[in-house]
Write a structure and sequence with these properties.
Helix 1 (11-22) links the parallel strand 1 and strand 2 (26-31). Helices cover 42% and strands 15% of the residues. Helix 1 (11-22) packs across helix 5 and helix 7 (259-276) runs antiparallel to helix 8. The strands form four sheets. A seven-stranded parallel beta sheet has the order 3-2-1-4-5-6-11, with helices on both faces. Strands 7-10 form a two-stranded parallel sheet. The protein contains ten helices and 13 strands. The protein has helices at residues 11-22, 83-104, 140-159, 179-189, 207-220, 237-248, 259-276, 284-291, 299-305, 313-326; strands at residues 2-6, 26-31, 46-50, 68-71, 111-115, 163-168, 170-172, 194-195, 201-202, 204-206, 225-229, 235-236, 256-257. The chain is of the alpha/beta class and 330 residues long.
Length: 330
């Protein structure tokens, strides 16, 4: 099939394009002039079109002759809580998605697969969270993802726009530079503490499994539905810490900090960032997320898509950390 991918130069996007090309699909990658596409240029059966989802005019004709659209382009999680950050989220994520959808309305595409996040659901303190849970986003990042989902569902209800929503949790894997990389850097520096006395159950999924789910959604996903993409279970943060330390092949101390102290430190970091500008090293939402056990059900994705996580956690983390070390990120 002919497939358009936005955000193709990003972490998940690059892995997705490689997998689609391997399956014999023709990929059209929407990229910006500043995008690093050297790795993608090595692939066959691929074309590049230059545009920016923030600029509707630059999207003219980009969907022509396409069967499937994967929409990954977005501003990811940013710790800053400034008005500037809010506007950045609104323009890049919400308006950018609207621009692309309106271009797609003129073309009879089969699927529009949007990469959202479990963040769109907010921090739900339930034993197990599935797609039926009522979303309660609070942070700018969470709200941004949820707003995009609401926009897309509006198009589904009003125009039967063929949307499918993917909600991966924290994604890791080689070339990842998001939340897992931040955590690994802090562990490497010996400044990643154990906060609180709970299990701190953390959902995590390898990029290869996310790509697997995305391709399954193209073939089997139900229109107008959302799918949580995670591992079979959530892991105690101490387990992730231990595997990462072993992968670093060095000794680290997993020191303990009470939740109240951690929140106080986070508050000071926020205050300094607000006073002098910049992004706080940690904020209170980070702490709340860390100490809240988060467990997601993937039964819907397993039943409807045939999704089954395949990457072993220990092996996946070791390969990821090895890539960080070999490429000078640690």
């Amino acid at each position: 099939m002919n497939i358009l991918i936005t955000g193709s130069a990003g972490f998940i996007g690059r892995h997705l394009v490689k997998a689609l090309v391997k399956e014999g699909h023709h990929c059209r990658c929407l990229v910006r002039k500043a995008s690093n596409i050297e790795e993608l240029k090595k692939l066959e059966n691929i074309e590049f079109v230059y545009g920016d989802i923030r600029n509707r005019e630059s999207l003219r004709g980009v969907v022509k002759d396409m069967d499937i659209v994967y929409h990954l382009a977005a501003i990811g999680h940013v710790s800053s809580v400034s008005n500037k950050t809010y506007e950045m989220y609104r323009v890049n994520n919400l308006q950018g998605t609207k621009n692309l959808v309106e271009e797609c309305l003129e073309i009879p595409i089969k699927r529009f697969i949007y990469f959202s996040s479990t963040a769109a659901m907010g921090l739900l303190k339930l034993p197990i969270v599935d797609e039926s849970a009522v979303c309660c986003p609070k942070t700018l990042h969470q709200t941004s993802k949820h707003d995009c989902e609401e926009l897309l569902m509006k198009y589904w209800y009003e125009f039967k726009f063929p949307v499918i929503i993917m909600r991966p949790c924290m994604v890791y894997g080689h070339t990842a530079k998001g939340e897992f990389y931040k955590m690994t850097r802090l562990i490497d520096k010996g400044i990643f503490p154990r906060v609180g006395k709970g299990k701190n159950l953390t959902p995590i999924v390898h990029v290869d499994d996310v790509v697997q789910a995305a391709i399954l959604a193209m073939n089997k996903g139900r229109l107008g539905e959302a799918y949580i993409i995670a591992s079979e279970k959530s892991y105690e943060l101490s387990k992730l810490w231990n595997i990462t330390v072993d992968s670093l092949e060095d000794k680290r101390t997993y020191f303990y900090i009470p939740t109240t102290v951690a929140k106080l430190v986070a508050f000071v970091c926020e205050l300094i960032a607000k006073t002098y500008g910049g992004i706080p090293l940690v904020n209170r939402r980070n702490i709340e997320s860390t100490v809240t056990d988060r467990v997601f059900s993937i039964e819907k994705a397993k039943k409807e898509l045939g999704y089954t996580p395949k990457v072993n956690l220990e092996e996946g983390i070791k390969q990821t950390v090895k890539w960080y070390k070999e490429n000078g990120y640690l």
